[in-house]
Specification:
heterodimer; A: alpha/beta; 10 helices; 15 strands; globular; B: alpha/beta; six-stranded parallel sheet; about 25% strand
């Protein structure tokens, strides 16, 4: 049976989900909803039979709709997610699941009570590097992880002051918006429960920023493991793109240096890595979500895991605000 | 007084084993002995050192063909002695260094210089009373070519104003932790190196400290999150992992990344090295200057008045203060202001 899917919010990241849907057999884009009619219309341009609307309620009323992908600003996730659950549709929602633990609870409960699939888009779990590190840890080659360093550093701040992601009232802050990728990934790798989070932040791109464009997050886990997770949009040069993974285990270590995955280009404008395929994570993520809706596999990311990531990120935002270590209320 | 051939005369004070490690013999002696600007003169220790210590010192002196002087003042009074390599147990450091300063000699001291801030302060007072005498703690990691290049880049403005630094310092090899813990043992190296590169002081620290590899009471792995002046942030891992077959050998994972307003520098203390592989093994073979040799080169130049000291008692105190504060931070799972812990003795 073909699965009918609607996409709510058609901004930057929705394009990645739409591209993934276009490749996936057995699914059909029913249509999209966006407050901006021009953007909504453009999103379905060239897709046969796909509709568009500016109303979430109208989208949810389309009869052939089975599931939704929500790509709206973070502060709308609870309201829209709850509407999706009430309409008895499955949901893949951009991270963070919510910008408060209470909000995450509401969504997790709503989908659980209705027996619906809820998955948050922690895309890094689906990239080759994330999966390979996970498999290597599970192979027991290095013993039990005692230390994780994951740095994802770039110089690309969002386009201008109109970007909602740099408004903490809308995004929840940088820990909730981007830091949560690393919090989820490292916790998945470690395979244990977080105890506390301490976050150091910097505002590098502009002193006027209301968010911290650089984060260094130190997480302590129940089993004694410690993770140092760096997320940056404030590095220079602006083209800086640097991902570094180092994991020390009780018997050995994993190292994935910055140039491990892509070739290096030495050009007149400077040195940079050759671009990789960033779409593959979205393709796998959507495929995994669809498979779980069909009952072919368990959800790759449970609602409880998405909630835990929110709890860690909220603790992180509190740490940034207070300068103190925050316990994670999982 | 310089030896006849212009070399500085070296007195080796104690071959004590500190926490199971005999650094005088294993670390310092080979470098001091091979240094073209130094000449070994004698081995000595305090007269009231334990009998078995005197016996060990005597054996080592005999093996080197050097006289053993079981009286520190007598040895320091020898005009051929210019510099003293101090590797006595911590409980005798303050007294030994007080005598070295009193005789106007120069001291190269195994790290950690001392285990308390009070002891550091006492040593500083001794040398304050001996103008011209140098006391240098052997924080040699900051002299590693990789760290020196990072320091030069930062100090030269290559990356603009630094705002973050992140380091690994995980030695690969061993069967147990140093009895006083690897944070005290190795933590000083990494903290000192980051301080040297940034040229800033730590204001507060958060830490996680554990015995994750070997069990027992001594810590073998730590993570420190540091807040420096001007809001500059840093983290460092510190440990002795039981990893076998590390491509860098015992050197393990020692790296530093510094990020600034106009760029980033990344250095690896496993370099300069070349890759060697075949017949079932793969190895990065280091071919740079050994950091201890670089420190001793600097020490000799300072003693000769050719360079200003880059490193002194205050650096040892500052690094120790961070370590002591980190111990409190880890125990109480909170951020500790260094001012708060200034009274730790």
């Amino acid at each position: 049976m073909t699965l009918g899917i609607g996409v709510i919010g058609t901004g930057f990241v929705a394009n990645m989900h739409l591209a993934a849907l276009a490749k996936l057999p057995g699914v059909r884009l029913v249509g999209v909803a966006d407050l901006d009619p021009a953007r909504a219309r453009a999103a379905v341009s060239g897709i046969p039979d796909a509709r568009w609307t500016t109303s979430v309620a109208e989208l949810l009323d389309w009869p052939d709709l089975d599931a939704c992908i929500v790509c709206t600003p973070n502060d709308t996730h609870v309201e829209i997610g709850l509407a999706v659950a009430t309409a008895r549709k499955h949901l893949l929602i951009e991270k963070p699941l919510a910008i408060s633990v209470d909000g995450a609870d509401v969504l997790v409960d709503a989908f659980r009570q209705r027996g619906l699939i809820l998955m948050a888009a922690h895309t890094h779990r689906f990239y080759d590097y994330g999966r390979t590190v996970k498999r290597t840890i599970e192979s027991d080659d290095i013993g039990t992880p005692v230390y994780v360093r994951l740095a994802i550093l770039g110089g690309w701040i969002w386009p201008d002051w109109r970007a909602w992601v740099i408004d903490p009232r809308r995004s929840g802050g940088h820990v909730l918006h981007n830091g949560i990728h690393l919090l989820d990934l490292a916790t998945w790798w470690v395979g244990d429960e977080p105890v506390s989070v301490y976050v150091q932040g910097r505002k590098e791109t502009s002193a006027e920023l209301a968010i911290f464009d650089y984060l260094s997050m130190t997480v302590r886990y129940r089993n004694g493991c410690t993770a140092v997770l760096e997320m940056s949009r404030g590095n220079r040069p602006r083209t800086f793109s640097y991902r570094d993974v180092f994991i020390q285990g009780t018997r050995g270590a994993i190292r994935l240096p910055w140039d491990a995955e892509h070739g290096i280009a030495f050009l007149e404008g400077g040195t940079s890595l050759l671009p990789g395929d960033s779409q593959i994570g979205f393709d796998r993520e959507v495929g995994s979500w669809v498979a779980s809706i069909r009952g072919e596999s368990a959800p790759a990311i449970t609602g409880d895991e998405a909630r835990r990531a929110v709890a860690m990120a909220v603790a992180g935002e509190n740490s940034l605000r207070t300068g103190r270590v925050q316990h994670v209320g999982c | 007084m310089l030896a006849v051939d212009g070399r500085l005369g070296v007195l080796l004070v104690s071959f004590a084993s500190v926490g199971g490690q005999a650094h005088q013999k294993s670390m310092y002696l080979p470098v001091l002995r091979a240094h073209p600007g130094l000449q070994l003169v004698a081995v000595a220790d305090e007269s009231d050192a334990p009998e078995d210590q005197h016996a060990l010192n005597q054996r080592e002196a005999d093996a080197l063909g050097l006289p053993y002087v079981a009286d520190l003042d007598a040895a320091l009074g020898n005009p051929r002695v210019d510099v003293v390599s101090v590797c006595c147990p911590f409980e005798r450091r303050v007294a030994v260094l007080e005598r070295v300063a009193a005789f106007g000699k120069h001291a190269l001291v195994d790290k950690p210089l001392a285990l308390s801030l009070d002891a550091c302060d006492a040593i500083e007072r001794s040398f304050a009373n001996a103008p011209g005498s140098v006391c240098m703690p052997a924080h040699h990691y900051r002299f590693h070519p990789a760290l020196r290049s990072a320091r030069a880049a930062v100090a030269g403005g290559s990356i603009g104003l630094p705002w973050a630094a992140h380091a690994e310092f995980i030695i690969a090899g061993g069967t147990s932790a140093w009895p006083l813990g690897e944070l005290v043992n190795f933590g000083l190296y990494s903290v000192d190196a980051i301080r040297a590169v940034l040229g800033l002081e730590v204001q507060s620290v958060y830490a996680s400290i554990g015995s994750v590899f070997y069990g027992g009471g001594a810590d073998d792995f730590s993570v420190l999150a540091l807040n420096f002046e001007h809001g500059v942030v840093a983290t460092t891992s510190i440990g002795r992992a039981p990893t076998t077959g590390h491509p860098n050998g015992y050197g393990g994972d020692r790296r530093l990344r510094v990020m600034g307003s106009h760029g980033t520098v990344v250095v690896d203390a496993g370099a300069p090295s070349l890759a060697v592989y075949g017949a079932g093994h793969a190895q990065q073979r280091y071919y740079g200057t050994e950091s201890l040799r670089a420190l001793i080169d600097h020490f000799v130049a300072v003693v000769r008045g050719q360079q200003s000291p880059e490193l002194g008692i205050r650096d040892a105190r500052a690094a120790l203060q961070v370590v002591l504060a980190a111990q409190v931070a880890a125990r109480e799972n909170r951020v500790v202001e260094l001012q708060e812990e200034d009274g730790i003795a």
